[in-house]
């Protein structure tokens, strides 16, 4: 065999384990979609492929299913609440994280290194440690059962500050010096010079914050008990009763819930991969 044939065989042998691993990782997703397009049942589907007639009725029924137990509310209400929460967290989080990262990376002030490590150290604290103090603060502010309780505590993150800080430290200082010579203020430099060249990091953080916000369950469960303010993750619990579970409706609801995240990732995937690489070059 010639060299080209050996390379092809080697590539095939290397890709087989990757393909098998991908199949194992995708199996739950395949089962979910198969259950969603099969007839509704109280018994979990025992196959990765649809059994019987393929139908889309589950999606319509899943969208309207909670109405009987939630005073006419549908999944659309839960989607709207989750979209509002996610958009506010992503936009606000990007603004606060980027500004804090820029100040720590570029401005000289006492304790700059300490604040950088302090932001990074928040990644080591589990949510369960801060959940009770956060709830007490939210309750004292009168934010329980409001979307404010879902949004404000998540507007800044240690990971976002650290990634933006690492990125801004890798940007040549000459860009800012040229802008200062032209009379640009700090805010003008930040918004007109630094942010436009930060698209990979912005794409990365947009994807991460959107995924994290959209999938929140425990914190909304703690601060929200009004069905009108439920997020999509809380809304999915209506399909699972104490004694029975509507697997067809549940899987159809989960399929609908995951679609926005897939769209966000597909749109941001190039920036996401580039941002992770850029953030790992220089710390």
Reading the helices and strands in chain order gives HHHHHHHHHHHHH
Q: How confident overall, as mean pLDDT?
A: 86
Task: Classify the helix fraction into a percent range.
Answer: 55-70%
Largest sheet: none
Structural class, from helix and strand content? mainly alpha
Radius of gyration: 24 Å
CATH topology name: MetI-like fold
Q: What is the highest CATH level, the class? A: Mainly Alpha
| Integer tally of domains | 1
Straight-line N-to-C gap: 47 Å
Shape category: flat
What fraction strand? under 5%
Gross CATH architecture? Orthogonal Bundle
- What is the CATH homology-level superfamily? MetI-like
Describe this structure in words.
By secondary structure, this protein is an all-alpha fold. The longest helix is centred in the C-terminal third of the chain and has 35 residues, at 247-281. The protein is built from 13 helices and no strands. Residues 279-283 have low confidence and may be disordered. The chain has helices at 3-36, 57-64, 75-106, 112-121, 127-140, 147-151, 158-170, 173-181, 186-194, 199-214, 218-223, 232-235, 247-281. Helix 3 crosses helix 7 (158-170), helix 7 (158-170) runs parallel beside helix 13 (247-281) and helix 10 (199-214) packs antiparallel against helix 13 (247-281). The chain has a single domain (59-281), classed as MetI-like fold.
């Amino acid at each position: 065999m010639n060299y080209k044939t050996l390379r092809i065989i080697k590539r095939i042998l290397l890709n087989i384990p990757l393909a098998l691993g991908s199949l194992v990782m995708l199996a739950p997703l395949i089962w979910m979609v198969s259950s969603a397009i099969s007839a509704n049942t109280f018994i979990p589907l025992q196959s990765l492929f649809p059994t019987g007639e393929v139908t889309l009725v589950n999606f319509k029924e899943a969208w309207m299913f909670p109405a009987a137990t939630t005073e006419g509310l549908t999944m659309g209400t839960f989607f709207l609440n989750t979209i509002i929460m996610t958009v506010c967290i992503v936009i606000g989080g990007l603004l606060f994280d980027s500004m804090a990262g820029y100040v720590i990376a570029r401005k000289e002030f006492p304790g700059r290194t300490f604040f950088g490590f302090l932001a990074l150290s928040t990644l080591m604290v589990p949510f369960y440690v801060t959940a009770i103090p956060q709830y007490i603060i939210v309750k004292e502010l009168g934010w329980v059962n409001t979307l404010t309780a879902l949004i404000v505590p998540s507007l800044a993150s240690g990971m976002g500050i650290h990634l933006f800080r690492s990125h801004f430290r890798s940007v040549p200082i000459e860009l800012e010096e040229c802008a200062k010579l032209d009379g640009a203020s700090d805010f003008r430099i930040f918004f007109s010079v630094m942010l436009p060249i930060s698209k990979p990091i912005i794409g990365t953080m947009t994807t991460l914050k959107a995924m994290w916000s959209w999938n929140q369950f425990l914190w909304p469960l703690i601060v929200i008990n009004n069905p009108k303010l439920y997020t999509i993750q809380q809304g999915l619990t209506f399909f699972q009763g104490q004694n029975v579970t509507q697997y067809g409706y549940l899987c159809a609801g989960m399929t609908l819930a995951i679609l926005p995240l897939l769209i966000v990732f597909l749109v941001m995937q190039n920036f996401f991969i580039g941002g992770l690489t850029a953030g790992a070059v220089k710390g």
